[in-house]
């Protein structure tokens, strides 16, 4: 099972599904772990999604074409596909999850404290973490309790995240404790963002 793959994969990147006699052009909508969401740019042959079908996802990485063994199934949105990478090698990227530049209200405070939360906003999100604007009230800590507001859905996501990087403008955090349904919701938000971009 693929454990990671790299900056070779990016949202909106062209790719191809090699189906033997046919190569179907696709755009990468997003990725999470070994699953790569694809938007085919041409009709698929009728037997393209036969159960148990193993194929190759062709992408350009560092100036050379990479053929990644994958199983393919229908995606979550109409017309999309999910290619689960089966090759156990890395393309060199550090990100495991797609990220999207979504601005959402967020609160964070050092874990285990009663300090008032620092109110800020996200600069980007993913199912694996987030980057927020660093406010003057930010308190340095290795772990933060985080609440992300999903205003339109009248919901919030609660998680614990470790600090990965701090700059004068931003704080990057990686989730260490987040509910599976919350992680899935963040992945769906990023896919929806890139889906809209791919449709333009």
CATH topology of the largest domain: Thrombin, subunit H
Low-confidence stretches: 1-7
Structure annotation, total helices: 1
Structural class: mainly beta
What is the oligomer described by this structure? single chain
CATH architecture of the largest domain: Beta Barrel
Q: What is the CATH class name of the largest domain?
A: Mainly Beta
Order of helices and strands: EEEEEEEEEEEEEH
Identify the CATH homologous superfamily of the largest domain.
Answer: predicted glycosyltransferase like domains
Estimate the strand proportion: over 45%
Radius of gyration: 19 Å
Q: Compute the number of strand runs.
A: 13
- Estimated helix fraction: 10-25%
Q: How confident is the prediction overall: mean pLDDT?
A: 82
- Biggest sheet, open or closed, and with what strands and sense? 6 strands, antiparallel, barrel
Q: What spatial form do the alpha-carbon principal axes imply? A: elongated
The tally of domains stands at: 2
Termini, distance in Å?
33 Å
Strand order of the largest sheet: 1-2-3-6-5-4
Tell me about this structure.
This protein has 200 residues and is mainly beta. It has two domains: 14-85, Thrombin, subunit H (Beta Barrel), CATH 2.40.10; 99-195, predicted glycosyltransferase like domains (Thrombin, subunit H, Beta Barrel). It is built from one helix and 13 strands. The protein has one helix spanning 180-199, and strands at 14-18, 23-32, 35-40, 54-61, 64-74, 81-85, 99-100, 105-110, 118-126, 129-133, 143-150, 155-166, 170-178. A hairpin with a 6-residue loop joins β5 and β6 (81-85). The protein is elongated and about 60 Å long. The protein starts with 13 loop residues before the first strand and ends with a helix. Residues 1-7 have low confidence and may be disordered.
């Amino acid at each position: 099972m693929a454990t990671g793959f790299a900056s070779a994969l990016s949202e909106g990147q062209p790719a191809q599904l090699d189906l033997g006699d046919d190569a179907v052009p696709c755009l990468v909508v997003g990725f999470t772990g070994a699953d790569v969401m694809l938007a085919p740019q041409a009709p698929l042959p009728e037997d393209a999604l036969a159960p148990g079908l193993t194929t190759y996802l062709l992408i350009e990485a560092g100036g050379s074409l990479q053929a990644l063994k994958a199983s393919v199934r229908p995606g979550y949105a109409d017309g999309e596909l999910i290619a689960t990478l089966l090759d156990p090698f890395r393309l060199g990227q550090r990100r495991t999850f797609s990220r999207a530049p979504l601005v959402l209200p967020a609160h964070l405070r050092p874990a285990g404290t009663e300090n008032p939360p620092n109110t800020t906003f996200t600069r980007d999100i993913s199912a694996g973490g987030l980057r927020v604007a660093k406010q003057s009230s930010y308190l340095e800590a290795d772990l933060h309790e985080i609440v992300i507001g999903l205003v339109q859905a009248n919901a919030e996501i609660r998680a614990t995240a470790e600090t990965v990087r701090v700059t004068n403008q931003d704080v990057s955090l990686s989730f260490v404790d987040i509910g599976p349904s919350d992680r899935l919701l963040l992945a769906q938000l990023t896919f929806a963002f890139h889906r809209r971009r791919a449709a333009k």
